[in-house]
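Weekly modeling sync, notes
Attendees: S.R. (lead), two postdocs, one rotation student

Agenda item 3: backlog of single-chain predictions. S.R. asked that every request posted to the team notebook include the full sequence so nobody has to chase files. The rotation student volunteered to paste the first one in as an example of the format we agreed on. Action items at the bottom.

Example entry:
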Amino acid sequence: MLLVLGIGSGCARASQAEEPVFRISEIPVSHRVVQADLVDLDGDGRGDLLWTAVQGLPPLERRELRAHFQREDGSLPEHPDWQHPMPDGAAAYDLGDVDSNPGQELLLLRRDDLMLLSLAGREASFRSLPLPASPTLAVSVDERGIDRLRLIHRDRDGEALLLVPGFGESMLLGVDGALRGRPRVGARANFFIPERPGPVVSESEMEIYYDHPRVTVGDVDGDGRVDLLASSRHELRVFLQGEDGRFPVDADQTLALGRLSAKDHIRNVGSVRIEPGHIDGDARVDLLILNSSGSFFDSESDLDIYLNQGGGWNLEEPDQRIDLGEGFSMVTLRDLDGDGELELITAEVPGGLLELVELLVTANIDVSLSIRRRGENMPFEPSPWQTREIDIGFSFETFRTTGFVPQIAADLNGDRQLDFINSGDGDEIEIHLGSRERGFEQRHAAQSLDTLGRIRFGELQGDGLADFVIYDPRRPRTPIRIGWNLGTLVPSTGDKADRGISRQLGPRSRLQRGER
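Predicted structure, as returned to the notebook:
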């Protein structure tokens, strides 16, 4: 889960006059945009734009990949330099440095293979990696568009390890297509089968909700090799990588979680989510287990934290338990201040009838955000270092937030600390710089902009400052908006000293060089 959490307009405002943080450029489109990313495609060190256009509706729908290569003067052309029909059956994608070619590759998940696209040197090259078993989960394209799925992981030597989800199993491959294992990770499913003869209550003969386990790689046993963890609401399976680099078919450890009540299981409500991470610095994977019980009207959540003890976890005795109270909760681990230690971030959304009435009346979702630092004699401090109450606008027309989902996912001023970026009510981009002393309590800048849709961060200019692209899959013919970081957000003196940053961000500001 890419975070998802944020601080709203209740934070203190910056006292200085606000100046533009981004130069905004637009790419006109005549169709619907379902994907857009900023990435170095051709290997020249400059960021480029890759996006997917969708025209028409099934069965006559057409999908097309389009690339805009950045020019030497730092601009992107309005019209694509390269375009190509989306390979048939592509249901999900990932981007990363997979092989020896310059630039990053596009990886497409299809029913029977992985398709790799390289645009190194601005020359397109497609390569198919056949799979040892089919189908993958990509039995059909997603009618809504195409989403990013993490397919590219890293082995201990830094080589790409490709993780392909299948039915009841995962397939692990090297970049040469060599099979590294087919672990049986399990699955869960729910079926809806309307009776026939009977009233027509569905357009389908059978509807299936299929849940593939959440799969993560990390060193469990401390031997320096990455292992595989597969978690569902019922159990955790661990597959240890062998000396030969292969993964076993059957799990080395299968741990029953036992968190879900019989009532929640029967009603198919509640959730049990596992977030692996390195909490205590010993390089072995630790666990967060978040249990949310009940439905929207009677939900409550608690978080258990387990440190790795000799290659496993004692699920009977958590190293720390945090009661998150009533409502639904989300958790993640992030190194917010770049000091090498992870902070615990939780977001709680209250439930109940009164909250539902408030949502209907105000069209706002109430979120309580908490940040906890590492503790002295426990994984994290028992009380939050920072807590904020925020409102996120909600549209009943689209059943989505009114702007992009707030993010803690990018460094906008080069101080190696993650910053908080919000979308206001869909009409501005709002920035709260991260600080080791103050967190996100101050709003440092805001800039008017159409922020409806999704935001993706990348680096266009090779300066260590995050840029962004915003696109809206729900509004056809809406231009792609690109934000070029102008370098005007300078870290405070204290923060720069703390991080040991020697470069001077202020003097190299593109605004001061007259580059608007």
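Discussion: group reviewed the output briefly. The helical segments are 262-267, 353-362, 493-499.
Action items: rotation student to repeat for the remaining queue; S.R. to check formatting next week.
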